[in-house]
Amino acid sequence: MADITRRLGWRHLRGAPTAHIRHHRSGALVHDGTGLSFWFRPLTAALSEVPVDDRELAMTFHARTSDFQDVSVQATVTYRIADPSVAAARLDFSIDPDTGAWRGTPLDQLGTLLTETAQQHALDVLARTPLAAALVDGVAAVRERVAAGLGAEPRLPATGIEVVAVRVMALRPEPEVERALRTPAREQIQQEADRATYERRAVAVERERTIAENELASRIELARREEQLVEQRGTNARREAEEQAAADAVRAEAEAARSVTLAEAEATRSVGLAEAEAARTLKLAEAEAARSRQLARAEAEAAREVGEARAQAQAAWLRVHTEAGVDGTTTLRALTATRLAENLPRIDSVTVSPDVLTGLLAKLGGDSEGAR
Q: What's the pTM value of the predicted model, to 2 decimals?
């Protein structure tokens, strides 16, 4: 659709590159071409816009085969307007000078023309073809016949129409007929599937049998090898026991020899220790005897010196008493008292009763008076 703008009673049209614009003013052709842009007055202008690009026309129609079976055909026709001047003269491509929209429906008219023409040729070829052949080769036959019919149709060039391509996408019977036609093929496919399943099961059974035989052979071989392994283990155990016994004998002999050696060494060491201990004891005894002799000698010497000192002291004491005029009896008594005092036990405390003290005082008093 052309783009039209308004300016103070004037109109400006801007066409697309794929649209052919024809501008008549007062019956005279002023502008004619694609992608035009110009100013015009709406009251004196007659405009038409013809698309020149390729257009797709999809169509679906029903037909009947020679064996009276209904089929549906889906096709697409690609066309273009090769001569815009002729098309604008034969069909109403005029546009409104204010909005740029078509006043009529020229493309619908072209679609109706192409659809009816293609349908006529497709019905003609399918009416002479049975259903089975139509389903097998009907698509190509219908496409060739429709293309040839549209190319030979005189009305299309007279309208400025050029058919670019014809495509037939599908040719299908009614759903019930299609299911009936699919049944034999499905049965055959199912039979092939069943046969393949049986063959696969047979192969699987054969493989399972082979696997079972292989497993049995493997078990037999494994049992045989286990028997060999048991024998070898017995031989190894026996050999190991013999080697262990020999090793134990060698170890016992070595242990006995080592024990004898240790015993001899221990005896030698014990003898040496005993001799050393005896020598040390002898030395200690000799030293102790020497020390005892020295102590006895020292004690004897000390006792002798003490006795001499005591004798000298007693002699001096006697000499003092003799020189003092004391008689021998008194001296002996004094000496006896002294010896007795030396041998008496130690007295820590002495308790004097009043009676004793009174008697001593009385005695002392009497002695004093007698001395007077």
A: 0.48
